[in-house]
């Protein structure tokens, strides 16, 4: 028991302030490294009927079945054909494993806490609801994703609206 | 405090042992109640069980459990020793069962790691009252002690006890009775001071029983109550783990002083669990003179004599018990689950190797020979893993005795429970899901099905109602049938109820009897007012069917008015690995459980019928079946949309059949059912998918839930 806690603690310490960055069109997003379990190339996705369009289906991760969502579609960006650059980032949140399909993975960055600012509140704020903060690295800007919201959103709020959305598109 | 020496495994052992004992106890008390007679064996058994529970609970510091067990033990001690003629069997069972219930609740608290704080005071008083009444009844009829004197050869104890007993009867103060198991703090009568015997006991435990030191501590703990002085070696049994080794090699030695006879002490030590050998000898004490002018005196020798008593003598029962246990091991279910997962992965891996696309078209005779052998072994292994997980239904069934008993008592109906096929085995995971629905159905049957005695006699039935609980295998399913010979269901009442609630989907002329009865499983029927308004079934029957559906089973009802009702639960033997037929639609693969498939065929365009709403149907051997196009149902892109180009798979769920249209068949295979990720399940309102599985090439195939698909047709 005590060992586990110690291990956790150590892990958290080495993972602090580290972000995995990936690109989606022109923007670079960051995701806290502690959520990430692995990165795999795009692979055949099994479609599951009656899901919102951004949930592409399920993949087989060494015997474990995990759902994959297309982050582009999740953010209501136009769909882009998958290429060999396309990656699936497997993240683990609240014991749910899920794959995020992104354009490409960039690098692991250290962004100190004082370089991260809260996102500006835009009117309606719809586009910002998945952004936890904005990280400044040199001259570029990385949008830091709020993973919890990315998943939780549809679990809690209007399931039906996302569903019908999926059917239409 | 408890944390000092109790660790997880000990607690587990305690919970396991105690719940087993309680089950045993419940079983024997119910059996004796049925025969309306408590046999000597039962009394001994209950006494022994309570004694063990008392001891181990006290050791685990669950004082309230121990004290209740203690008072039940007292009660049975009296019954055992005095063999009273007039015991109110049913009242006795009530008391004991109430005690069992209390202990069960407390045990649940132990499991949940909640504070074990139930108050048994009231129950203890009831028991004490009962005991007093028992004493009064049986002592006034005849002189107890004369008979006792004959049966018991313990002079010292008798001398001391006899006058006390008489006193008690007149005074009726339960606390003062000088029983064996007096707590040490109760002051002993001064008369006892004169008679003290010293004994030396050496206990050897069975090899491999583990935790010898803890077991030795139990002995000491129990001893505390009956002896006034004791010394034991090794001394540091709790603090020092090495002492277990010492006990293993040299035995556990206790020297004690007590007023008990040799026999009593011997009996006490023989109750030790996992006892292999006991050496008990009496040591003459300097100050005490154990000379008694009773005739059995020879039994208490005055010089130290070594008496080694073989275990077989008295503890035959325990021997048979422990040898039976040795051929059975209990395994953590989680480990079995893991094993099954691994075997499941191996099954997939096997398919990956033998159906590898690289092998296509190659002439590999030797390879296929080896592959067949491999396949055979995997198959056997899989069957074996399944077999390990199979548990007979008997425990679940026997639990129902209790419900029948309680219910019939409460409702004042005479009900017999008959059990058929209790040896039928079902997967461990599934068994957990049937217990509740079964209980519900039995309750319903007694409450609503079986009529009151007067009504039954008027209907020329036997006075006592019968509920039959039957289990049998039917292919890869198990049928569990709950049948009663009560008044049956009233179709008219069900129909009118359904009409009121708008639950009818068909016109009343079309609806079959079976469909009418199945209406009671709809949620609309489970509302409270049904019970009073309409005396059929229907209290929470939807819960029953939901529960059974979660394990992939189904429920149906048959009933004849006036003659009774039978409810049949059809449940799969196991959840995890099923035979499946893989089919292809576009790029997607689906799996249909082989059990549901009746046939597959290529349709002729001329057999297809279309109704004005463009619903398609097909005529097969004079019968018409609806067609379900998977590609439209799941919106899958495929080239094959002409019905004559693809293939039809006729599936069946209970009475409903339909034809599923797919591109082609890929072949049959054993598949491992995996649940869809929780995240995906969240989106799905009606689950037309039963899960998914991995195919030989590592791709995923979705398992179709035939029940939901046929239901689509019904709508």
From TrEMBL, chain A:
SMART domains, alphabetized: CheW
SUPFAM superfamilies membership: CheW-like (SSF50341)
Pfam families in UniProt: CheW (PF01584)
GO annotation, biological process: chemotaxis; signal transduction
Residue span, CheW-like domain: 16-156
GO CC entries: cytosol
Source organism superkingdom: Bacteria
PANTHER family, A to Z: CHEMOTAXIS PROTEIN CHEW (PTHR22617:SF23), CHEMOTAXIS SENSOR HISTIDINE KINASE-RELATED (PTHR22617)
Descriptive protein name: Chemotaxis protein CheW
Organism: Dehalobacter restrictus
From TrEMBL, chain B:
InterPro entries (UniProt xref): Bact_Chemotaxis_CheA, CheA-like_dim, CheA-like_homodim_sf, CheA_P2-bd, CheW-like_dom_sf, CheW-lke_dom, CheY-binding_CheA, HATPase_C_sf
Matches recorded under Pfam families: CheW, H-kinase_dim, HATPase_c, Hpt, P2
Taxonomy, superkingdom: Bacteria
Entry function: Involved in the transmission of sensory signals from the chemoreceptors to the flagellar motors. CheA is autophosphorylated; it can transfer its phosphate group to either CheB or CheY.
Name the record gives this protein: Chemotaxis protein CheA
Keywords, sorted A to Z: ATP-binding, Chemotaxis, Cytoplasm, Kinase, Nucleotide-binding, Phosphoprotein, Transferase, Two-component regulatory system
Annotated catalysed reactions: ATP + protein L-histidine = ADP + protein N-phospho-L-histidine
Subcellular location: Cytoplasm
Domain named CheW-like: residues: 577-715
Keyword Phosphoprotein carried by entry: yes
Enzyme class: transferase
Natural source organism: Dehalobacter restrictus (strain DSM 9455 / PER-K23)
Residue stretches making up the HPt domain: 3-110
């Amino acid at each position: 028991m005590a060992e586990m806690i110690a291990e956790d603690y150590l892990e958290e310490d080495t993972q602090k302030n580290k972000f995995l960055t990936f690109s989606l069109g022109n923007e670079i997003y960051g995701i806290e490294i502690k959520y990430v379990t692995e990165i795999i190339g795009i692979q055949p996705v099994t479609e599951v009927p009656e899901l919102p369009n951004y949930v592409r289906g399920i993949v087989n991760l060494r015997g474990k079945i995990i759902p994959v969502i297309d982050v582009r579609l999740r953010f209501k960006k136009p769909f882009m054909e998958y290429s060999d650059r396309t990656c699936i980032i497997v993240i683990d949140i609240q014991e749910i494993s899920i794959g995020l399909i992104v354009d490409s993975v960039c690098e692991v960055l250290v962004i100190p806490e004082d370089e991260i600012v809260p996102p500006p509140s835009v009117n309606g704020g719809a586009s910002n609801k998945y952004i936890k903060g904005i990280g400044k690295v040199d001259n570029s800007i990385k949008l830091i994703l709020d993973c919890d919201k990315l998943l939780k959103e549809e679990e809690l709020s209007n399931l039906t609206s996302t569903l019908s959305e999926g059917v239409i598109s | 405090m408890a944390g000092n020496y109790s660790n997880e495994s000990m607690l587990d052992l305690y919970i396991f042992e105690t719940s087993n004992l309680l089950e045993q106890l419940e079983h024997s008390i119910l059996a004796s109640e049925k025969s309306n007679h408590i046999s000597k064996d039962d009394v001994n058994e209950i006494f022994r069980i309570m004694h063990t529970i008392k001891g181990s609970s006290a050791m685990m510091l669950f004082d309230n459990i121990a004290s209740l067990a203690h008072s039940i033990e007292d009660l049975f001690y009296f019954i055992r020793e005095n063999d009273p003629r007039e015991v109110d069997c049913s009242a006795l069972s009530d008391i004991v069962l109430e005690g069992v219930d209390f202990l069960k609740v407390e045990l649940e608290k132990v499991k949940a790691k909640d504070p074990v704080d139930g108050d048994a005071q009231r129950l203890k008083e009831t028991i004490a009252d009962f005991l007093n009444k028992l004493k009064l009844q049986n002592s006034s009829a005849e002189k107890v002690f004369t008979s006792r004197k004959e049966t018991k050869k313990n002079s010292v104890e008798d001398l001391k006890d006899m006058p006390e007993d008489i006193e008690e009867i007149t005074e009726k103060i339960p606390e003062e009775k000088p029983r064996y198991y007096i707590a040490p703090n109760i002051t002993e009568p001064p008369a006892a001071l004169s008679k003290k015997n010293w004994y030396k006991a050496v206990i050897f435990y069975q090899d491999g029983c583990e935790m010898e030191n803890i077991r030795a501590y139990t002995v000491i703990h129990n001893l505390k109550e009956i002896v006034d002085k004791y010394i034991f070696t090794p001394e540091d049994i709790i603090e020092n783990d090495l002492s277990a080794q010492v006990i293993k090699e040299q035995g556990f030695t206790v020297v004690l002083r007590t007023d008990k006879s040799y026999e009593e002490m011997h009996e006490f030590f023989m109750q030790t669990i996992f006892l292999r050998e006991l050496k008990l000898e009496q040591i003459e004490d300097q100050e005490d003179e154990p000379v008694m002018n009773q005739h059995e005196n020879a039994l208490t020798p005055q010089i130290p004599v070594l008496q080694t008593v073989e275990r077989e003598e008295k503890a035959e029962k325990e021997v048979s018990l422990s040898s039976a246990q040795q051929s059975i091991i209990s395994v953590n279910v989680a480990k079995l689950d893991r094993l099954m997962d691994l075997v499941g992965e191996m099954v997939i891996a096997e398919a990956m190797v033998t159906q590898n696309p690289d092998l296509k078209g190659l002439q590999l005779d030797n390879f296929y020979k080896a592959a067949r052998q491999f396949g055979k072994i995997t198959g056997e292994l899989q069957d074996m893993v399944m077999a390990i997980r199979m548990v007979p239904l008997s425990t679940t069934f026997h639990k129902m005795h209790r419900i029948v008993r309680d219910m019939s008592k409460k409702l004042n109906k005479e009900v017999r429970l008959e059990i058929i096929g209790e040896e039928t085995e079902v997967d461990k995971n599934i068994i957990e899901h049937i217990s509740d629905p079964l209980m519900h159905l039995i309750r319903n049957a007694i409450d609503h099905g079986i009529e009151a005695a007067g009504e039954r006699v008027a209907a020329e039935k036997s006075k006592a109602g019968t509920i039959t609980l039957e289990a049998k295998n039917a292919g890869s399913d198990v049928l569990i049938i709950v049948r009663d010979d009560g008044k049956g269901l009233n179709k008219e009442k069900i129909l009118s109820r359904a009409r009121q609630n708008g639950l009818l989907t068909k016109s009343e002329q079309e609806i079959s009897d079976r469909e009418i009865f199945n209406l009671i499983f709809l949620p609309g029927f489970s509302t409270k007012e049904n019970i009073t308004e309409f005396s059929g079934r229907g209290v929470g029957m939807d819960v029953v069917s939901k529960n059974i559906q979660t394990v992939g089973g189904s429920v149906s009802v048959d009933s004849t008015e006036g003659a009774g009702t039978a409810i049949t639960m059809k449940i799969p033997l196991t959840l995890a690995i099923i035979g499946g037929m893989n089919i292809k639609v576009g790029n997607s693969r689906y799996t249909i459980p082989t059990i549901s498939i009746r046939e597959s065929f290529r349709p002729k365009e001329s057999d297809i019928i279309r109704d004005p709403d463009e619903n398609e149907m097909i005529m097969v051997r004079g019968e018409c079946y609806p067609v379900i196009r998977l590609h439209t149902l799941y919106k899958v892109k495929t080239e094959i949309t002409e019905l004559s180009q693809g293939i039809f798979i006729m599936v069946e769920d209970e009475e409903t059949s339909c034809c599923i249209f797919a591109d082609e068949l890929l072949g049959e295979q054993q598949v491992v059912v995996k649940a869809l990720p929780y995240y995906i399940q969240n989106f799905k309102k009606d689950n037309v998918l039963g899960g998914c599985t991995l195919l030989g090439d590592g791709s995923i195939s979705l398992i179709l839930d035939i029940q939901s698909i046929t239901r689509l047709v019904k709508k």
